[in-house]
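Working notes for the structural subgroup meeting. M.R. asked for a predicted model of this chain before we commit to crystallization trials. I am recording the input and output together here so anyone reviewing the notebook later can reproduce the run.

Input as submitted:
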Amino acid sequence: MPYGAVGAPPVDETPRSPEQTIAAAQELLAAGRPFAAHETYEVAWKHRPDAERDLWQGLAQVCAGLTHAARGNATGAARLIERGAERLTAYADGGGPTYGLDLPTVLAQARSRLH
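Returned structure, recorded in token form:
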């Protein structure tokens, strides 16, 4: 952003329930703010149980990848989305709660933004 430009408001770093976190991140993604969605998921990965780390970290990485895609960095986008996919796949294979998220659909939608 140019000097003096007004930016987007910062993301609230107050821990939320998983459902509130997902809803907030989805709103941010719908508003075209994938980096803010990344930050929202990052708060969750820092405050949720370690057993859920791959879920929240994977979602954050996918959102970071979407940020790179929006900025025209196709290589960085693909790498981050695939790193996120590895975490989400490992998490899904472990049978942890997904809080209503269909992880294969999340990944398919993210990957579709790479083309």
